[in-house]
Amino acid sequence: GTSVGVKRFGPELERRTLCARQFERCFESTFALAAADKSDDAAAARKTIPSLLIDGQARGPGCTAYACLTAPATIALTEQREDEWSILTLIVNPEERDMALIAAAEHAMLTKIHNLCQESNSKLRVHVKAKETLAGKCEQLGLTPIPNDDEDEEPVWFRFSL
User: Which of 2, 97, 135, 153 could pair with 102 as two cysteines, CB 3.0-4.6 Å apart?
Assistant: First the structure.
């Protein structure tokens, strides 16, 4: 299964609960992407993945997974468009408990994807649902909110920069 244990107490409970849900969404999304890619019309199938209908758009057609398998293992599900890449999920091994190590792994993954993104002259942003689960603080990770058209709403995306 995809279930991830969550400590039932402590200051990390809320973030770790969000991490568990994100882990499940990532598993569901990557499994659906693999199934879509086996279909006769992969592009059309990728457009219909419910977990990848984000911010009013089908994100499946441009999704790629990036993984770092050194400790702690980290995976990011990223949508690649011509001028902008979007991190939809970013997960560090749910068994890791060292917050500094988790934040360092998050920053390393963001930096690596940012470098790849820059090779295609694109910008990198992070979806709010991925940002909510990060152990690192926005300042520490290089994330700044991208203002919405409606300034009264909370930001949905965060820009990454080194």
Answer: 135
